[in-house]
Every structure is written in structure tokens, then in C-alpha cells.
Amino acid sequence: QVQLVESGGGLVQAGGSLRLSCVVSGLTFSTYNMGWFRQAPGKEREFVTGISWNGGSTYVVDSVKGRFTISRDNAQNTVNLQMNRLLPEDTAVYYCAAVQTLGQVLGVMLVNDMRYWGKGTLVTVSS
After folding, report:
1. Residue 111, SS3?
2. CB atoms closer than 10 angstroms to residue 48
3. Average of per-residue pLDDT values in the chain
């Protein structure tokens, strides 16, 4: 059974930092590109950042560029999201997702392309 379990969310003041983690089981993690997505209340789920199966490429959307960093540890089946200088508009449920491919992450990963999803972790940034 494939499981993606996010953790690390919480309440933080604007300007603060959080580190999200996603532990993956039930699949060959090193053959999956991983993405972080988020969904704010009343909005559609959107791509935030992704990383290729071997960590060789990453992509991050402009709205979080320079503040968010994705990383992965294939030995620990974990993908992380370091979020710095958080803004109130970063408030959302954050999801990790996986798609099996040995390609590189060169742009936005599409919600419909992702095969497996976690249940999400809530990040709330107060002003």
C-alpha cells in the first residue's frame, strides 16, 4: 500500500520558517519525481515546487522562489520543503505528490499528472 505522509505544518508568524517533510512508503521512491502542492481556502490546488527522482533538477514557482527549497533523501524515502520568510498568502494545506518517471523536472508539474498524494498538512501564517 502506497502512503505519503506529510508533517511539519503549523501556525507561524509572517517572516517565520517551517520545514515540511513527506515520508513515502510502498513504492520505489527513487524512481519517482516528487512535488509539493498547496491549496488555499476557496482556491484550486496549485503546484509549488518539484524535484526529480535523483535530485538532479528542481523547479519552483515564482511566488516562492528564493524562499522555499525542496530536497529529497532517497535513502530515507523522504522529500522536504524548507519554507522561509513566510507570508500570509502562503497559508494553505500543503500536499506532497509522486509521479513515476526518470525524467527531469523542468517546469510546473500538473495536478492531474501526479499518481499518488498525501493527505496534506496545514500551514497557517499570521500577519
Report:
1. helix
2. 25
3. 97
